[in-house]
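Notebook entry, structure prediction.
Reason for the run: the old model in the group folder had no record of what sequence produced it. Starting over properly, with the input documented here first.
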Amino acid sequence: NVVQDVVESFQEQVAARSQTLDVEMGDGATAVTADPRRINQALTNLVSNANKYTSADGRIVIRVQPQDDFVQIAVSDNGIGISEENQSRLFTQFFRAEDEAVREQTGWGLGLSIVKKIVEAQGGEIWFQSVHGEGSTFAFTVPSANIDGDLE
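New structure, fully documented this time:
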């Protein structure tokens, strides 16, 4: 139950900032062939970023959507978003955007590069959409196990 574990681990941080963290599960089996510990790590990094870069009273949503041969997991927020000039380097190790809101947060600029490596090592892909000032969605896929079970 990877998604639920991640949600539970962020309850305190989300509550402290008066944010909401919701989960939307699509219909169908969500069992995957990926290592649950690695998926937990990837999802934790994405939710952590959403929490850090979304203001108080903001919203974070984790969506799990089964597809034919894979499961798509997405983390969306209505946070600060990412400027176009920073988007091409986002998965680069040690890259941190120059935005003041980013610099106020601690970090080494490794989180997204680690997430990308984890997802690709599990046979998946990762991408994002972002509008500066409006928020971001980071989504990744992992191969489906095509058996009953779930990531809830």
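Summary: The longest strand covers residues 135-143.
The old model has been moved to the deprecated folder.
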